[in-house]
Amino acid sequence: MKRNLFLSASLFCAALTMQAQQVAFEEYDLDNGMHVILHQDNTAPIVTTSVMYHVGAKDENPEKTGFAHFFEHLLFEGTKNIERGKWFEIVSSNGGTNNANTTQDRTYYYEVFPSNKLELGLWLESERLMHPVINQIGVDTQKEVVQEEKRMRVDNSPYGKFREQIGINLFKNHPYKWQTIGSLEHLANATLEDFKDFNKIYYVPNNAVLVVAGDFEVASTKKMIQDYFGPIPRGKEIKRNKYTEEPITKTIKATYNDPNIQIPAIFTAYRTPANTEKDAYVLDMISTYLTSGKSSKLYKSLVDDKKMALQVFAFNNSQEDYGSYIIGALPLGKTSLNDLIVEFDKEIAKLQTELISEKDYQKLQNKFENNFVNSNSGVEGIANSLARNYMLYGNTNLINTEIEIYKAITREDIKTVANKYLKPNQRVELEYLPVAKPEN
Question: Where in the sequence is the signal peptide annotated (predicted)?
Answer without folding.
Answer: 1-20
